[in-house]
């Protein structure tokens, strides 16, 4: 039998010295290899092996069952991927594609871009996601054997826009009260916003009639309940698009009122439509900053999913208080005031959430038309935000200057972009693939992280004279 006590008693001090030296040598070699691997590939070798190979093997069926459970509920996984602080034992969430709350009209805006440039602004992947959305919201089981609605079910998935429009006209010939057909015509056949608004007003009358009819019979069974849910979705969609038409035509007060009414009436669908982001953008255009701050305070909650609109609008409103008098030279000598510190912290928070936005706001990278779907924390979301909010940053004197002077310091504070930040979950590694599917081929997708990104951590500032909290 092996006598452990006899073995330990026979060991001399030289053995322990040799053991310590050998383990130190091996640890040093591992550290050097880790440093070399990190410099070359931008991530930890041991961390990648443990996450991708060892952890699934140890967890076994538990991890797979947990993944299947999360897949069935997209709203729960999206919350942690879009900000907030999930529990320590929760796995990194998958990337989720969201409907762009400020998406443009295909006929009146996307099609005009194609006529001018001969470039397709939307990808088939993006349009296919929209077709799935329309089928989900505008169809139900009660549409079976109703020819006009069956036509519209196939019309959403038709790739040829001419055929889609023709199908919508056919549906209206069969049933003049087919509201989804009006929606398709307003989205794709109308070549101006005025024309789209006219069609949507006709659709609103029909949708309200259908809603009242289905409301009276919604308790007569699951099919009737599904029809009422469909009519509710159609009515909400039409009202939202009418509000967006009013915003585009300069009727700001009318648009703000319509968006406010929608946010009050349909709280359960807010996570899908994000109508509060439409309201925030409209209030910024009206320069009603106090009202915008009130809306922001309601939705910038730790329990709600974050977005670029939430984070960057919070930074813009805080920068507004100090941006007009901010000077990097003076700040480097005297340090930051409490108000300036608050603004800088808000900018760092926004950049940590979506690092692609500053290049578009500072116009160091060209803008294109935003897609119909966005990936939060991705380049597609940055495009959608900057496309509509760049002018709001320009309206506030000094806001872009403050952003230019401070945003790059965020990356200095993070151990590495793929690791957990101070406020948000680690930056998802799947954003590049999803953005390439969402964005057209002629656009250069912004990839993060990169070794040379940003090129200068500190521009126009001598950070040796600034307090440490400047980078927080």
Automatic annotation (TrEMBL):
<feature type="compositionally biased region" description="Low complexity">
    <location>
        <begin position="63"/>
        <end position="80"/>
    </location>
</feature>
<dbReference type="InterPro" id="IPR007311">
    <property type="entry name" value="ST7"/>
</dbReference>
<keyword id="KW-0472">Membrane</keyword>
<feature type="transmembrane region" description="Helical">
    <location>
        <begin position="15"/>
        <end position="38"/>
    </location>
</feature>
<dbReference type="Pfam" id="PF04184">
    <property type="entry name" value="ST7"/>
</dbReference>
<protein>
    <recommendedName>
        <fullName>Protein ST7 homolog</fullName>
    </recommendedName>
</protein>
<keyword id="KW-1133">Transmembrane helix</keyword>
<feature type="region of interest" description="Disordered">
    <location>
        <begin position="62"/>
        <end position="93"/>
    </location>
</feature>
<dbReference type="InterPro" id="IPR011990">
    <property type="entry name" value="TPR-like_helical_dom_sf"/>
</dbReference>
<keyword id="KW-0812">Transmembrane</keyword>
<comment type="similarity">
    <text>Belongs to the ST7 family.</text>
</comment>
């Amino acid at each position: 039998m092996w006598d452990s006590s006899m073995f330990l008693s026979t060991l001399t001090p030289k053995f322990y010295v040799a053991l310590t030296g050998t383990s130190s040598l091996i640890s040093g070699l591992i550290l050097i290899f880790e440093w070399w691997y990190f410099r070359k590939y931008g991530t930890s070798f041991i961390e990648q092996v443990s996450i991708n190979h060892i952890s699934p093997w140890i967890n076994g069926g538990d991890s797979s069952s947990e993944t299947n459970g999360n897949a069935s509920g997209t709203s729960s996984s999206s919350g942690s991927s879009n900000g907030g602080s999930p529990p320590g034992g929760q796995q990194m969430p998958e990337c989720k594609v969201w409907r762009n709350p400020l998406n443009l009209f295909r006929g009146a805006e996307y099609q005009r871009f194609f006529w001018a440039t001969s470039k397709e602004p939307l990808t088939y992947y993006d349009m296919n996601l929209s077709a799935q959305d329309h089928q989900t919201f505008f169809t139900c089981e009660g549409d079976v054997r109703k020819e006009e609605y069956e036509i519209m079910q196939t019309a959403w998935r038709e790739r040829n826009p001419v055929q889609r429009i023709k199908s919508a006209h056919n549906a209206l010939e069969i049933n003049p009260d087919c509201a989804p057909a009006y929606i398709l015509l307003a989205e794709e056949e109308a070549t101006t916003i005025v024309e789209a608004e006219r069609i949507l007003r006709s659709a609103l009358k029909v949708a309200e009639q259908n809603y009242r009819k289905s409301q009276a019979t919604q308790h007569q069974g699951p099919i009737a309940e599904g029809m009422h849910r469909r009519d509710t979705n159609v009515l909400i969609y039409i009202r939202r698009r009418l509000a967006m038409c009013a915003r585009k035509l300069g009727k700001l007060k009318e648009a703000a009122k319509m968006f406010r009414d929608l946010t009050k009436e349909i709280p359960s669908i807010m996570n899908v439509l994000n109508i509060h982001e439409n309201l925030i953008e409209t209030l910024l255009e009206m320069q009603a900053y106090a009202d915008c701050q009130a809306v922001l305070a309601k939705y910038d909650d730790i329990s709600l999913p974050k977005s670029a609109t939430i984070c960057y609008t919070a930074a813009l409103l805080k920068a507004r208080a100090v941006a007009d008098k901010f000077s990097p030279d003076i700040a480097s000598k005297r340090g930051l005031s409490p108000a300036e510190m608050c603004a800088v912290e808000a900018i760092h928070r926004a950049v940590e959430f979506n690092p692609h936005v500053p290049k578009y706001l500072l116009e160091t990278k060209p803008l294109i038309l935003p897609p119909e779907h966005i990936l939060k924390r991705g380049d597609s979301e940055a495009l959608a935000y900057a496309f509509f909010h760049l002018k709001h940053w320009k309206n506030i004197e000094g806001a872009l200057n403050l952003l230019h002077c401070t945003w790059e310091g965020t990356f200095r504070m993070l151990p590495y972009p793929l690791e957990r930040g101070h406020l948000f979950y680690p930056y998802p590694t799947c954003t590049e693939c999803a953005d390439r599917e969402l964005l057209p081929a002629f656009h250069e997708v912004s990839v993060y992280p990169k070794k040379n990104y940003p090129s200068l951590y500190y521009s126009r500032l001598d950070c040796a004279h600034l307090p440490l909290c400047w980078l927080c």
